[in-house]
Amino acid sequence: MWRDMLFYLYLMLGGAFCGWIAHGWHDAKNELAANQSAEKTRLIVTETTRQSGQALENKLSELKANEIHTEREIRTEIIKPVFSNVCATDESVRVFNQGVERAERTLSGKPADPVPGQPASTGGQNRH
C-alpha cells in the first residue's frame, strides 16, 4: 500500500513537473511571438515615419523654391503725369518734377551732384 501511494505521489509530481515545463514552453512561445510582432510594428512605424519625413522635406523644399521664384518687386514710375484737363504748362511740370527730385534726394541722403574732379593720389611727395 505504501508502494502504491508512493507510486501515485511520484506520478502526480511527474505530471506536475511536465505541466510546469509545458507551461514554460507555452509562455516562451507567446513571448517570442509578442516580441516578433512588436519588432515588425516598430519596423513599420519607422519606415512610415521615414517616408512621411521625406515627403515633408520634399514639400518644404518645393514651397521654398516657389517662395524664391514668387518674390518679385513691382515698381511703377511716373515719368510725366497725364492730366485729363491741361491746367499746367510744360514749365510748371518741369518745376514740379525738379521739386520731387529734390525731395527724393533729401529724403534718401544722396548728394545733389557727384564730387567733381579726381581724388588725390596717395603716397605723393607734395607734403611740406
From TrEMBL:
The name under which this protein is listed is DUF2570 family protein
Q: Does the keyword Transmembrane apply?
A: yes
Q: Return the annotated region ranges for Disordered.
A: 104-128
Q: Which organism does this sequence originate in?
A: Rahnella ecdela
Q: Where is the composition biased (Polar residues)?
A: 119-128
Please tell me whether the keyword Transmembrane helix is annotated for this protein: yes
Membrane spanning segments where? 7-25
Q: Which UniProt keywords apply?
A: Membrane, Transmembrane, Transmembrane helix
